[in-house]
Write a structure and sequence with these properties.
The protein has twelve helices and 16 strands. Helix 8 packs antiparallel against helix 9 and helix 8 runs parallel beside helix 10. It is globular, with a radius of gyration of 22 Å. The strands form four sheets. The protein has a five-stranded mixed sheet with strand order 5-13-12-6-11. It has a four-stranded antiparallel sheet with strand order 1-2-3-4. It has a four-stranded antiparallel sheet with strand order 8-7-9-10. The chain has helices spanning about 5-15, 20-25, 80-85, 120-130, 135, 185-195, 215-225, 250-260, 270-285, 290-315, 330-345, 370-380; strands at about 30-35, 40-45, 55, 65, 70-75, 90-95, 100-105, 110-115, 140-150, 170-180, 205-210, 230-235, 245, 320-330, 350-355, 360-365. A hairpin with a 6-residue loop joins strand 3 (about 55) and strand 4 (about 65). It is α+β, with helices and mostly antiparallel strands. The longest helix is centred in the C-terminal third of the chain and has 27 residues, at about 290-315. Bound molecules: adenosine-5'-triphosphate and magnesium ion (MG). Adenosine-5'-triphosphate binds near residues 92, 95, 174, 175 and 245. Adenosine-5'-triphosphate binds near residues 71, 94, 146, 202 and 245.
Length: about 375
């Protein structure tokens, strides 16, 4: 991509020194990216006051879209909630999909991934399923939400409420922010706007007093756990302090189960952080030895069973992949998405293509070379540490 840009102007727009922005370029913290004729710069890492995933559109306005901030986690509900929050706490369900920011820039809508890429798959789906006129009326806003469902390329999990005619996919807004300042609307203002514009959104499960929040949230978590749902995000009604997350035992179990299918591609911290969450939860929920053993059995199975299955499959000559079914409106859309995956270095194999009515149903297999290669090598006698 050949673009020349006015570093001075970009630095000003981002509130950075020209020296800093040059340094960010040199250190490859900033990357160029192009979708159709739209050119952007994106921050691959956090830099000064800018979040990872912050984007600047290379148009006349140099429109900025700030990255979605990290959400901190409570390991114990008490005293963390009481200490962190100011007064009331809005309890929202945490949906397990992928984070998307939808913006309206130069008369067009774009869906940005957490990393700041314009995702062609998601951009098309949100345009198709949502009336986005809220952004035409408020182009300074970004709609932040979770794309959930079985038929998505990043976090394929079935959600009942996301079922459409021919695919399990839906976008739920959990935050509306000013895209240049990253300031959130108060929770109730966001809810009202979503209702007025008939936009699908995450609804509060409860509003609780911070003094008794740990008791209420624990009850809610136990219910969500039974329903195999991910957890909660807790918010100050005015968004004056940052939200906190807390997840169910089921999620820890499910994450490990997925992670251990491709265990040599999984970071060690992925395992460790989930095990630690379980330790604190078991302590805080004052479990009996029996309950604790039940938890240990679940976690043990989540680790061992998928791992052995992978070893077995590789031993039988298979190359294991994570298979995901995606639905495209046209061949052109599919090829465009393949090109995107190539650019962001997600390795896939096409396993099946079917034409259903006038749609394209594609089974892609995500390739995990490290797991496959290492398992095969060890099975053939390679020594650990060699
Ligand atoms: P990080 O901890 O950096 O935010 P992560 O990828 O580890 O990132 P998660 O553990 O999934 O993220 O938790 C934060 C994410 O949860 C948010 O970025 C958002 O995409 C998602 N999320 C789902 N439901 C909600 C909700 N109701 N409110 C806020 N965020 C939500
Ligand atoms: Mg998530």
């Amino acid at each position: 991509m050949v673009v020349s840009y006015d570093l001075d102007k970009i630095a000003k727009k981002l509130n950075l020194d020209i020296k800093d922005i040059s340094r960010a370029f040199k250190k490859r913290i900033i990357r160029e990216y192009e979708y159709k004729d739209t050119k952007i710069l994106l921050f691959k890492k956090e830099f000064k006051h800018l979040e990872k995933g912050t984007v600047i559109f290379l148009n006349d306005n140099l429109d900025v879209v700030r990255g979605y901030p990290k959400t901190y986690r409570a390991l114990v509900l008490y005293p963390t909630l009481k200490k962190h929050f100011l007064d009331k706490i809005v309890v929202e369900e945490k949906l397990n999909g992928y984070n998307i920011r939808v913006v309206y820039i130069n008369n067009d809508f774009y869906a940005l991934t957490r990393g700041g890429y314009i995702c062609p798959f998601t951009t098309k789906k949100v345009k198709k399923y949502l009336d986005l006129s809220i952004l035409e009326d408020n182009p300074n806003y970004m709609l932040c939400g979770e794309m959930i469902g079985l038929n998505n390329p990043y976090t394929p999990k079935y959600y009942e409420e996301a079922q459409k005619e021919d695919e399990n996919l839906g976008f739920y807004i959990f935050d509306i922010r000013e895209r240049e300042t990253n300031k959130s609307l108060p929770v109730f203002e966001r809810l009202k706007l979503c209702e007025n514009y008939r936009l699908p959104h995450v609804k509060p499960l409860a509003i609780v007093d911070k003094e008794e929040a740990h008791i209420k949230v624990r009850e809610i978590i136990k219910e969500l756990d039974k329903k195999k749902r991910e957890g909660v995000v807790l918010k100050d009604p005015n968004m004056d302090v940052v939200p906190l997350k807390y997840t169910t035992h089921y999620t820890q179990y499910d994450d490990l189960r997925e992670g251990f299918k491709f265990f040599f591609d999984m970071g060690l911290d992925f395992l460790f952080s989930r095990v630690v969450r379980e330790g604190f939860m078991s302590y805080e929920f004052k479990e009996s030895l029996e309950e604790r053993k039940e938890r240990a059995k679940d976690i043990g199975e989540a680790i061992i069973l998928p791992m052995v299955e992978t070893i077995e499959r590789v031993a039988n000559g298979e190359r294991v992949t994570e298979d995901i079914e995606l639905i495209f409106d046209s061949e052109e859309d599919f090829y465009e998405y393949l090109e995107f995956l190539r650019k962001v270095k997600i390795l896939i194999k096409i396993k099946k293509i079917e034409r259903v009515k006038n749609k394209l149903k594609v089974l892609i297999g995500k390739v995990y070379n490290r797991t496959n290669d290492k398992v095969l090598a060890y099975l053939n006698g390679t020594l650990w540490g060699e």
